[in-house]
Write a structure and sequence with these properties.
This is Rgg/GadR/MutR family transcriptional regulator. InterPro entries: Cro/C1-type_HTH, HTH-type_regulator_Rgg, Lambda_DNA-bd_dom_sf, TPR-like_helical_dom_sf, Transcription_activator_Rgg_C. Pfam families: Rgg_C. One of its GO terms (molecular function) is DNA binding. There is one protein chain. About 75% of the residues lie in helices and about 0% in strands. It is an all-alpha fold. Among the domains are: about 60 residues, 434 Repressor (Amino-terminal Domain) (Orthogonal Bundle), CATH 1.10.260; about 60 residues. The longest helix has 29 residues. The chain starts with a helix and ends with a helix.
Amino acid sequence: MQDYGPIFKESRINRRFSLKQVACDDLSISQLSRFERGESDISLNKFLLALQAIQLSLDEFMNRANNYKKHGQKKLMSQMAVYHYQKNVQGLEKMIQEEQKKLEKDFTDIQAKLNIILFRGMICQCDDTRTMSKEDLDFVIDYLFQKENWEIGDLILIGNFYTFYPTPLMSRMVREILKRVDYYSEISTNRNLVECTLINMIEICTERGELEEASFFEKEAEKLLSNERNAYHRTVFLYEKGFLKYAKGDFSGIDDMKNAIFCFEVTGAINHAKHYQSHMEKVLK
């Protein structure tokens, strides 16, 4: 209930109600103010009285709360992506600290726990001296396989943890995603995540020498990237196709990798250009 305070405040202000107008004999202004700041909780009865005072039903509020949480998670993922490409370990560690505060308030907050593990994974990808714990990796797998249907957050986990699990396990999960054509074909956010996951699978399978698997995911990615809708993913895909070509002995793949890096440079995506330049240099050693 405590997490609902800031959301309630936003709803109250949007509906032009003052704290004084919402307060009553059973709910003081100071109690309400602390609740809105997330500093204290209030009982369900008091919360329902507050909703009634701003003329908002419980169903309407819960819809707003769910959307609020989804928006907050999207912002977190966007920030994580920026820090990851910048290799900003300090920034990722600060994000972990914020999620740990959420867990301290509510130890049942699974999303905060998953976010912490995800951010640790990003740090490991930025710093080769860091390793993921077996406990964290087992927690993620147990969580994923207990769910009947994977949602956006689950696709993000799968798409970013591909380096930490054996290829057969990752391949199995991604193939399961591909069966859900209805889930990603018409929803752009889901489609973007599936595209990203397929591209990541091409890279990790190629790095591990599992070229048949890499070729399978290349064909699947080609189906989704057959138009010019997502220029960023098409550029990364060009790089990964070049990497796979090179791994198969076709040296024209080097030109594809270089062309992709050039595309990032001319479009101002400097962090991406540096990331793939560094990867190519390691590949060609």
